[in-house]
Amino acid sequence: MAERPKVGLGVIVVRGNKVLVGRRLAAGGKGTWCFPGGHLEFNEELEDGARREVKEEASIGIKNVKVVAVTNDINKEEGTHYITIFFRAEYDSGVVKANEPDKIADLKWVEWDKLPRSLFLPTINLLKQGYNPFKN
Fold this sequence. Notes:
It is a single chain. 15% of the residues lie in helices and 43% in strands. With 136 residues, the chain is of the alpha+beta class. It has one domain (6-128): Nucleoside Triphosphate Pyrophosphohydrolase, CATH 3.90.79. Strands 1, 2, 3, 4, 5, 6 and 7 form a seven-stranded mixed sheet that branches. The protein is globular.
């Protein structure tokens, strides 16, 4: 059977004029910065997956979750291919805490035009599309 792309989720959580980012510790993209996210599970609705991943990784609740972009992320060096579905959501409740310290660390709120350097490939591809959660 032929290899197929996996489905990734990236959630741009907005709070005031900032977004939530974290540094990846997992194998794919290790050391790069990204939005909370992960994999879509079998039989899972898209928005439910976004809510689950943010709760699992950052301990917070989100609201007004909507799909805003899709990227095609091929990393030949790592041998991976993902279709990443990006969501925009608003912070709703809770205190940010890294629940999966083996996967993501250094969670912090940053201004959109001050995203950290060394971004995760899907985030780079999102920015190439010109997406801005405060304008689009």
